[in-house]
Amino acid sequence: MKDYEPSPRLLSERVILVTGAGDGIGRAAARAFAAHGATVVLLGRTISKLEAVYDEIDDAGHPQPAIYPMNLEGAAPEDYENLSATLTSELGHLDGLLHNAAELGTLTPLEHYDPAIWARVIQVNLHASFLLTRACLPLLRQSADASILFTSASVGRRGQAYWGAYGVSKFAVEGMMQTLAEELENSRVRVNSIDPGPVRTAMYARAYPGRDPSNLRGPDDIMPTYLYLLGPDSLGTTGQALAAQSDD
């Protein structure tokens, strides 16, 4: 997938919502989607970061994005319904949803895992993804060609010691993706998951503080797979657990 070459207007006329759009992979995805013609909805909890991404997209002359501040840790079901209503009234449609926002938590044996941290990680990584998907599905169903992309991880596909709530939440995300893909198999909405792999981000640095990040790929380097999965070239691809760096 690293050799995929998207057309310049691959996402023209599409509206794509990106969670955790303020930095890291979310920021790179928002900029890549906008550069290929999409109107991007930037969702995150830190307004200053969202505004910086907004300015980058606007200054580049891409379609004007939208900012939607939301703290996924504390958002209630009605907050997601309000978001869907706003998307309907302000933009009229939704064609893509990238679940990128995530909490790492702590790398701790399960028997010592702090219950409050556990609850926060599960809330952001799993419950928020469910609530957002549930609220957005009526809009996505109206699209002629819609894509939902959940962010997974290798520790969500094969259990590894000490990854705690993060690993468990990603296993659950994979199950949600498979369940939803089957439920929507006769619709125009496709559903997949993606493991970004080792990427030079702040979260990776927190997870592996002793590793040299200089030989890792940056977020922009893995965008071909994201563009493929959010664009029309992936039509018919659904229920798949994919990897952004699988061809390396």
Number of strands: 7
CATH architecture: 3-Layer(aba) Sandwich
Q: What order do the SSEs take from the amino end to the carboxyl end, as H and E?
A: EHEHEHEHEHEHHE
By CATH, the superfamily comes out as: NAD(P)-binding Rossmann-like Domain
Radius of gyration: 17 Å
CATH class: Alpha Beta
Q: Note the total helix count.
A: 7
Largest sheet: 7 strands, parallel
The best one-word shape is globular
Please, how many domains?
1
Low-pLDDT runs? none
Q: How much helical structure, as a percent, in the residues?
A: 40-55%
CATH fold naming:
Rossmann fold
Q: What structural class should be given to the helix and strand makeup? A: alpha/beta
The overall pLDDT average reads: 96
What distance lies between the first and last C-alpha atoms, to the nearest angstrom?
9 Å
Major sheet: arrangement of strands:
3-2-1-4-5-6-7
Strand content: 5-15%
